[in-house]
Amino acid sequence: MSGRLGTRPEQAPPAVIERLVSLACLAPSVHNTQPWRWRYDAGALELCADLTRRLPAEDPRGRNLTISCGAALHHLQFAARALGWETSVAPLPAGGPDTLLARVAVFRTVRHGVARGDIDLLRSRCTDRRRFTAWPVPADRLDDLCDRAGPWGVHAEPVTTDAARFRLELLANRALSFLEVEGRRLLEQDRWIDRDGPDGIPLELLPDAPEPLHARSRFRTGVLEDTRLVIHSGDRVIALGGARDDVGSWLRTGEALSDLWLEATRAGMSVIPMSQPIEVESTRHEIARTVLTSRFEPHVLVRVGWQAIGRRDLPRTPRRPLHDVFLR
């Protein structure tokens, strides 16, 4: 049911703001660090980077942290629309503190019904690291996913040719080989696996069988059953990025990533971020120069594929309590 409210927008009440922040915090984040803080003051909702959750060894510039915050920002906008509210986002407010990434106004001028399917979509989205089936994602589906990035000012390009896929595989393995001998990085990863608390990656969400060389994971072996004999020929990779490699561009990439991910989830596809090749600067530059045709700055890669029919649903990763991330 919908109806007009008049010319003056209705400001969202505190209970709605609290619910939106709670839904926004379901967003994916690097190592499930949930590196965001929200603040509500004088009718404005502010998104801030929580620098205490930055990964200094793996993410010294904060690229992955900012992309994670961008995903939460999109989740908030998506949730608001699903609940019948509108949003107006002012990114990177001038003169604000370094950690302030965006200000969001939540209002409505027309009443709309609740899109319960979209709320369910936010709750069902997850990172399923089990191997994909051999059935590749069709080219038109990949193009549809890439189209989700355009409205956010983000470039998205699927890696589809055999030559580009082979080149990317070589570069990804080179990056992984480099990262595997970095002791600080390995210690940092381990600190975010199987933690006691409402963050990090539970061991039961990491596959129990090592992956083949061309699709190795950055994480150690877990306990999630993954014994099906499936191959990785069905994996498809999409690169997301922009004209610049800076905080504002990373934030927009995070919004586009969330949009793409939710659309893939709606279509029954699975998405796995693949940031390791981007974390090694020499490899990132090589990907831009020799793999991508559009010549943009890659910020993150994602693997897209289909999970086997009949696989059990995964438990959700833990989330920080609202009072830890929402200041009023």
Automatic annotation (TrEMBL):
| Signal peptide residues on this chain, from the entry's feature table | none
The lineage's top-level taxon is Bacteria
State any single GO MF term: oxidoreductase activity
Official protein name in the record: NAD(P)H nitroreductase
